[in-house]
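Hello, quick one for you while I still have it in my head. No rush at all, and the record is pasted right below.
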Amino acid sequence: MYTFTDILFYLIFIIHASREVQCGWRDFVHPEGPRVYYHHETRVFTDADMRPGKVDSEKLLAMAKALKIYAKSQPDVRARIGDETELVLELGIEKGNTIKSCGYYFVDHAERVIFWAHPYTCEPGGEILSNVKAAKKHSHIKYSLESQYWPSSRYHCELYPQNRHLPRQIFEELREIIIHANAETITSDTSLAPFDSNELAKMLDLMDRVEGKTYSGYFRHKLNAQPGSIDKMHAHSVCVVARFMRLFTKVKYTNFCGQPGARVDADRSIYYKEGHERETLIFRLSNLILWYGPRKHYKRIQRVWVDEIINAPRWKDFITQLDNEWTGFTLYSTVMMAVDVSFLAVPGIIDSSGSSQTSSNIAVYMSALCSVGSLVVAVLLVDQSQDYQSAEGGALYMSLMTSAIPGVENLALMHSLPFALLMWAMVFFGLALSILIFDTSDVVTLATMVPGWTIVMIFTLWPMMATPVGWLLNSARSLVHQPRRVVQYLRESRHSEVDQALRTRGVA
């Protein structure tokens, strides 16, 4: 039972609340905190302060009316202006609550797009085109406009989720998109989904809760259904659905969904054929010096930085793999450096007089320097990667690193340095050890070590035969047979030309 005091307090609260905004306006608190205002009669949204004594409501509504009249006079947008069309005003306010400027956009809920009455120029790096090349067809750009419709300052449904229902049709469409994306991430390594399988599973669980379904236990026993948010004005659920729809719609736009030549794999370009880029001479020489590490990283980068677009799950896997690789090289480099120092500490290795250095000493010094270089470069790369763990940070990093003339080649060379320097450290140490072993005239030592050294070298080079280094050795070995193959090719070509001429005469 409510007492008279409770009822009186409630009435005072209602009267006080009604005076917090100007006449005809309603205020809402966004699920993330900001306050927005809505004029129900004219269907106008704004984030300007519409409390008494702040922005003049009459001036704002007069601008809204003028914009609608102007829009109805434009043949291209006249058909879109109706009773359900919403108008969003973004005001520039000076001191004294004076309106300095006014930005706007209309919202067409039937088509799920935003539009303007005045001509709007889509800049290549703007919010609409988003640096996507060859975006010209309306059926393609519509996906970008729809992503602006869903949820920054122009993500409409996410920014203004109040006073709107959550249609079941939209809910079902989003759930089907998530289910398909989840299946794609499970069955394909080149999925276009902007989330990994764990994130998509959590999103499906959220969708069940929005619908009012809850599950419990490992086998997901269904509990009693709770009131859901479908066809209800639940701002938080509308905001969640709008954000998910915005992200998936943006993916459709960047991958040219529904267009000829649409991207179906995350590692495939829609502008260029595979292998269109030619390696520069410097890069080819660097591959020889750096043990073909740059080419391996070059292919990795090409698979993750496709058409200057980053797929978030693939970027996370890429940067995690690099971090693990570089962290491992720091350990190996430390061990190699300790081995070099221990080698030099053996009595008799270094001449105590210091007048000269043996070849083995010089080789060990080079091994130690390469170990230190590998360690330092790996630590620096791991430290830099910590700032680019997210997809947004990764896109910024890749744009900065590939904007120079060498582009991806420069980045691939840098990423391969820890591996290459570590390999040279081991090579120089092996060279120093070999010099020390064979710097003797003892027959027994040579007879014992030469076969052992040969066997170890064969076993060491064996794994390299499946790498580009092995291919290079095979190419060099096949050079001996190249003249004979050229002569055979010319003979076969000559015979084919004679046969063709005889056939032509026979037909004539």
Observations:
- DSSP finds 16 helices and eight strands in the chain.
- Strands lie at 25-29, 35-39, 44-46, 86-93, 99-108, 113-115, 215-216, 221-222.
